[in-house]
Amino acid sequence: MRHIIVLLSILWPVIAATGASHASDFKIFNQEPVEETRPALTDGAHEDGTLQTPRFLYRFSVRWDNAWNNDVNHDSAWIFAKVWGRRADADIQSATRSVHGRVIGTPKVVDNLVKGGPDARFIVADDKGGFFVHTADKYQGPVGWTIEVEYDFASLAEFRRFNRFAEIHGVEMVHIPEGSFKAGLVSELDMRFAGFYQSDHNGAFKGPYPIHSESQTIEVNPNDGALYYQVANAAARRGDQTGVIPAAFPKGYNAFTIMKYELNEGQYAAFLNDLEPIARALHSGFLDPGYADAFGGLEIKNDKVTSATPTRSANFIRWSDGLAWLDWAALRPVTELEYEKAARGTDEPIARAFPWGTASKAKLMWGPAENRQWGMLDGGAGPEALTHANLERYGVSPYWVFDLAGGLWERTVTIGDADGRAFAGSHGDGLLDTNGFATNSDWPTRVSVDGDGTGFGYRGGANYGGRRLYNEFNPHSPVSYRTFGSWSGNGLHRAYGFRGGRSAGQ
Ligand SMILES: [Ca+2]
Ligand SMILES: [Ca+2]
C-alpha cells in the first residue's frame, strides 16, 4: 500500500540561505518539499512484496554569479541534502542530527531564474550521494535555476513523521579535465624547496616529472626516470623519499573536480550545526582562545554556530576537521599531484610560476578585501570579468580555481609517507563516526586532535597578515614548492584552512 501525502510548507521550516557577494555569492534558497511517498506504517512493503523505502520530492533554487562553460572547462555546484528530525529511537548512535540524502533518478529544472540564461546539465554521483549541476551551453555569467530532485532517505524511518525537514547544501566546484601534465620543479636551482622532479641515474635533476596516465605506478627513488625530491634537514616535513605511488592513488590525470574556493565559514558552520554536542565540540577549533586574534568570524549565538562573514575562508580548521567535513559533504581530499594539476594546467610549466602561470605578482589584485573576505583590492570588476588573459589579476589557476596559492594553506594528501600513498580516492558517504570524524579507511585519518599525524602536507603558502615577513610561503608559494608537503601538522592556526574535491563522473 502506498500513501501519498502532499505536505503544507508550514510543517517544514524553510532554511534561510547564507551567502554574500565577495569571493562567492553562491546561495540556495526557497527550499520546500513537494511530495512525500512513504511506506505504510504497518508493513513498509509494496503489494508485490518488494521493499518500499521512503523517499520524497524536493524543490529548491540555486544561484551564483560567475558561472562558466568554455573551451577549457566549466564550473559547477555540488549539491547534497541532509534530512533532520527527532529520532524515534533514542538509542541510535550518531554524531549527526541528520541522515544523508540519496538521489533518485535525475534532477530537473522547473524554472530558469536568469532571463536568457543557459540550460542546466546534471551529473548524479554513482553512489547517489549528491549531484553536480553546471551550465549545459558555452556561457559565462550568472546562473540560477529552480530544481526538483527526489531523495531516498534509506534511514528516514528513524525519524518521527512530520518532525523532520531537509536542508540542501551546495559547494562551488571547478571541473579539471582529463589530461597529461608535468609535476614538480622546472629549475634545479629550486631543489631546496623539496619539489618533485624526474631523477637521473644518480638522484640528480633531469626535469619536471610527467604524469601521463591515471594508472601509472610511480617509483620514488634516486634512479633514472623515477620521481624524486630533496629533503635537506627537515625530512619529516618533506617526505620519506621512497615508496611506490600505486595506480589507485589519484594523480590528476583523470578528470576530477576541486572546490572553486577554500572552505568558508558559512559552509563549516552548517556542518557544526548538524553535529551532536560532543562531536561539535571536537570540531570547534574556533573556540580556542587564540581564535579571537585570528581573523575568524565563527561564533555561537543561541546555541547555533554562525558567522557574519560566511564567505570568508574558514581558518582554525584541523586536517581532521576538514576530513570530517568532506565525509559529511560526500566529497574527498585531493592529493599533491591533483593540486599541481589544478594549479598548473597542461601547458609547459615555467620555473617558480604561481597558479596564474607567471612568476610575478605585479598584476595581482585579488586578496583580503572587506572583512578579510577575498576580493578585488582595487575595487575593479570581480570574477565575472575573468578571461584566460587576466589570470594573474584574479590569482586564479588556468582552470579558474581561486587561491591555490595564498589565502590559507592547501592541505593535500602527500606522496611522502606510506599513509598518504595508501589513499585510493574514495568518497565520503555523509556518515561520520560517533565523535564526528571521517570514516573512509583509505583516507589518512591517523591524527590526534591537537597533535601531528601522517599522510598529508601543506601547499601554496598562506596570507599570515601583517606580522610576518614576506617569504616563499607568505603570502603565496610557487606551485612546485613543497617544503611542508609532507608535514602532517594537525594544529589550529589562522593560516590553516581546507579545500577538497571529488572524482569526476562518479
Ligand atoms: Ca590557499
Ligand atoms: Ca563516512
Describe the protein.
This protein is mostly beta strands and 506 residues long. Helix content is 9%, strand content 29%. The protein is built from 7 helices and 25 strands. The chain has helices at 235-238, 265-272, 277-282, 319-328, 336-344, 391-394, 418-421; strands spanning 2-5, 27-39, 55-69, 75-87, 98-100, 102-112, 120-124, 131-135, 139-152, 159-176, 181-183, 197-199, 205-207, 209-211, 218-219, 227-228, 244-245, 256-259, 298-301, 304-307, 366-368, 374-376, 410-413, 456-459, 501-503. Strands 4, 5, 7, 8, 10, 18 and 25 form a 7-stranded antiparallel β-sheet that branches. The longest helix is centred in the middle third of the chain and has 10 residues, at 319-328. The two termini are 34 Å apart. 49% of the residues are buried. Mean pLDDT is 88; it is low at 1-21. The structure holds calcium ion (2 copies). Residues 327, 428-429, 431-432, 439-440 line the site of one calcium ion.
List keywords for this structure.
single chain, 506 residues, mainly beta, 5-stranded antiparallel sheet, 7 helices, globular, binds calcium ion
Number of helices: 7
Helix share bin: under 10%
Mean pLDDT figure: 88
**Small-molecule components bound:** calcium ion
Q: What kind of sheet is the major sheet? A: 7 strands, antiparallel
Q: Using only CA atoms, what is the Rg?
A: 23 Å
Based on Cα principal axes, name the global outline.
globular
Structural class: mainly beta
The residue ranges in which pLDDT falls below 50 over 5 or more consecutive positions are: 1-21
Compute the number of strand runs: 25
